[in-house]
């Protein structure tokens, strides 16, 4: 019995001597810095204005403006910022002006056995957020937005008329643009 106690005591002393006492302290993990947020001091209401200046005029500018405003409301709630879509000046503190420069599609794969093909849709746009006093708050020049989607084989003009494509593209571009703006990317 006394032998077992001595062995246990020797093991405990060995563990303390070799591991617990003489090892370097564990590496302290520092949390990542918080994301950089856009300085929205003095901005409570943002008017969203979208212009489709592309030669093809496929994407509905009014629908994109409405979605951008709803995303500003959702993503800007922590900063107490609201958005609304309107072409004419109102009681806003800043204006988010988005101009669609070009719209294009590219067939990525031939139709599969189910009749679907992969289409890549690309938008090029510029966006500026400007205070009503003229101060530029944020800008994205020549933003390229690409997305791929499996759709039934259709000619390009018919592809743009699909409500699913319009909604999917509007939401995808709108979510990404507002996220980039709110996080000053």
Task: Break the fold down into its secondary structure elements and pairings.
Layout: H1 2-20, E1 45-52, H2 61-75, E2 82-85, E3 94-107, E4 116-131, E5 136-152, H3 156-161, H4 163-182
Parallel strand pairs: 1-2, 1-3
Antiparallel strand pairs: 3-4, 4-5
Mean pLDDT: 82
Spans of at least 5 consecutive residues with low confidence: none
Strand order of the largest sheet: 2-1-3-4-5
The biggest sheet, with number of strands, parallel, antiparallel or mixed sense and barrel status, is:
5 strands, mixed
Please identify the top-level CATH class of the domain at 34-103 and 124-144 and 165-182. Alpha Beta
**Total number of beta strands:** 5
According to CATH, what is the topology of the domain at 34-103 and 124-144 and 165-182? Rossmann fold
Shape: elongated
Order of helices and strands: HEHEEEEHH
Descriptive notes:
The protein has about 180 residues and is of the alpha/beta class. It has a domain at about 35-105 and about 125-145 and about 165-180: Rossmann fold. The protein is about 30% helix and about 30% strand. It contains four helices and five strands; from the N terminus they run H-E-H-E-E-E-E-H-H. A five-stranded mixed sheet has the order 2-1-3-4-5, with helices on one face. Helix 2 (about 60-75) packs across helix 4. The protein is elongated. The termini are far apart. The relative contact order is 0.16. The model has no long low-confidence stretch (mean pLDDT about 80).
């Amino acid at each position: 019995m006394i032998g077992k106690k001595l062995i246990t005591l020797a093991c405990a002393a060995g563990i303390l001597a070799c591991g617990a006492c003489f090892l370097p302290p564990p590496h302290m993990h520092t949390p990542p810095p918080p994301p950089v947020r856009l300085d929205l001091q003095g901005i409570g209401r943002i008017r969203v204005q979208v212009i489709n200046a592309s030669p093809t005029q496929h994407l509905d500018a009014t629908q994109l403006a409405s979605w951008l405003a709803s995303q500003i409301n959702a993503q800007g709630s922590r900063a107490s910022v609201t958005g609304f879509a309107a072409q004419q000046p109102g009681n806003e503190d800043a204006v988010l002006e988005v101009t669609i420069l070009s719209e294009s599609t590219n067939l990525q794969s031939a139709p599969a056995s189910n009749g679907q093909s992969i289409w890549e849709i690309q938008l090029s746009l510029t966006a500026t957020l400007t205070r009503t006093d003229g101060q530029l708050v944020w800008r994205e020049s020549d933003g390229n937005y690409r997305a791929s989607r499996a759709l039934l084989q259709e000619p390009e003009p018919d592809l743009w008329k699909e409500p699913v494509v319009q909604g999917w593209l509007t939401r995808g571009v709108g979510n990404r643009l507002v996220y980039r703006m709110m996080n000053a990317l």
